Amino acid sequence: MTSHGNVAISCVGLRKQFVLRHTRSLKEALVWLVKGRKGDLSKKFLALKDVSLEVKQGETVALMGLNGSGKSTLLKLISGVLQPDGGTVRTRGRVAGLIEVGAGFHHDLSGRDNVYLNGAILGMTEKQIDNMFDSIVEFSEIGEFIDTEVKFYSSGMYLRLAFSIAVHTDPEVFLIDEILAVGDEPFQRKCIAKIKELADLGKTLFVVSHDLDLVATVCERGVLLEHGQVIMDGDVHDVVSELRRRSLTET
Amino acid sequence: MAGQSDQLVKPGSGRGLLDVYGDRFLLKLLVRKEIKVRYRGSVLGLLWSYVKPLVQFLIYFVALGIFLNLQRGTPNYAIYLFAGIVLVNFFTESLSNATRSIVDNRDLIRKIYLPRELFPVSTVWVSAAHFLPQLLVLIGACLVVGWTPSILQLAAVVLIFGMVAVLATGLGLMFGAVNVYFRDSENIVDMIVMVVTWASPVLYVWSMVERVMGPWFWVYQLNPMTVAVEVFHWAFWEPTLKADQLVADTMPPDLLTVWLPVAMLVTLAVLFLGQLTFRRLAIHFAQEL
Lengths: 251, 289
Ligand SMILES: Nc1ncnc2c1ncn2[C@@H]1O[C@H](COP(=O)(O)OP(=O)(O)OP(=O)(O)O)[C@@H](O)[C@H]1O
Ligand SMILES: [Mg+2]
Hints:
The structure holds two protein chains of two kinds.
Chain A: E1 7-20, H1 26-34, E2 43-56, E3 60-65, H2 71-79, E4 86-92, E5 95-98, H3 111-121, H4 126-140, H5 155-168, E6 173-177, H6 185-200, E7 204-208, H7 212-218, E8 221-226, E9 229-235, H8 236-250
Parallel strand pairs in A: 3-7, 3-8, 5-6, 6-7
Antiparallel strand pairs in A: 1-2, 1-4, 8-9
Helix pairs in contact in A: 3-4, 3-5, 4-5
Chain B: E1 8-9, H1 17-22, H2 24-38, H3 48-67, H4 70-73, H5 77-104, H6 106-111, H7 118-144, H8 151-181, H9 184-199, H10 206-213, H11 217-221, H12 224-237, H13 255-282, H14 285-288
The structure holds adenosine-5'-triphosphate and magnesium ion (MG).
């Protein structure tokens, strides 16, 4: 294992606010301006309040919490898709976010075209993709379908290809949001094995999942989010049992 | 990969258009994707980019050239017309697609961080892929009627192509970014597109405008597209004229010495403003889309 020395992800006092009930027309906005900005055009909602978190290189962290607790929001802040309204987030090394599998896929392109497009979107160079191509296809077990348009893929095949591309991008920090849930049993096992392999290689993993058993086998550390705040941070098994306890008392 | 990886950096803070230059491979793939997807399932494919301007040209030529008899006062009116149409089409197609590009790619922008400038820039390249074959048609037509351009005129073509691309990029960045917040932006651009063909001397000649505007003619010349079209005429149409067809007002005065530099300055200002607006608004693209 690598040294748990350098910080890979550092979040300090992160705050993220969303604006709800948004007006989409210039007219409404103008009327509002003319009327002297009376009333509020929108409602504000704090999705993350004061989240501080430090992840060392090589750590495997599971981010847990109920629906709407802000997990995906935090991941998007770390990957740079969203910008915080307060606090700072900093990362070291290349970060690849599997915020959603196949986000960069285009339905009307063949699997092959999509491998290149998605690989480039995830930050690979042309040469890297050329070198990895066969390995990507092999891992995905897509076989001859690689030249078929992806809209004709089954959702499992779609996932396989997308996941395969993502694990081949070779980032230092891996963000994974809810993607292990799809795919059949053998492929899921293969994915988990691959993720564990990445962890053993000293990659930093930051995993969001509702599958608590799975998360407990893959990750060492657990972080529990509730209403946009970190309420627990420690050994993954402790956090899992705490989340289970809380879920039970709620129902 | 190692060099940059040893410091902590803020994710999602790019350098705008400079990042697009660094990401040329992705840009290439996006352009190729766009072209592939645009013509999927169509028999004629890229040929459509010839058919459309040709039909447009025929309509204008018949209505204006023949019915309104503009071709009598303007020798080689067909060349004159086509040179303008091709250039203006490049501009309008770039601008309207760039304006929609951010909203159209919302699935990607919401989930993965990339330099968002890639999308408007790639649409301009797609339009360029449509423009270049049309340019070849224009050159072919010019050669048929005896086109003998100077080196300077050829250089001007390349310069104008670049200038119009930059102008469309600048405006596309601006309107594309605003479009995320107010979809009215698309309609404003539709209007600009409609006006542009008529606000530049594409269908008529510049001296008709000067006759009407008199001392205010400089206002008309401030529009960089007007200058671009005029320079295109100078490069493609003027060299096809015979000596006795050249008159004092074939080309507007001070076109190359004053108005071309002015147009380039305006274009650069637009690009700067567009990039500035885009960067300010891009921070919240992912959550607003
Ligand atoms: N773009 C947005 N605009 C407005 N509100 C948003 C936006 N994105 C997220 N939210 C709100 O932020 C809160 C947190 O959302 P988030 O997606 O981070 O939850 P989550 O923890 O990932 O939940 P889940 O377990 O369901 O995936 C939710 O209440 C959601 O409605
Ligand atoms: Mg989520």
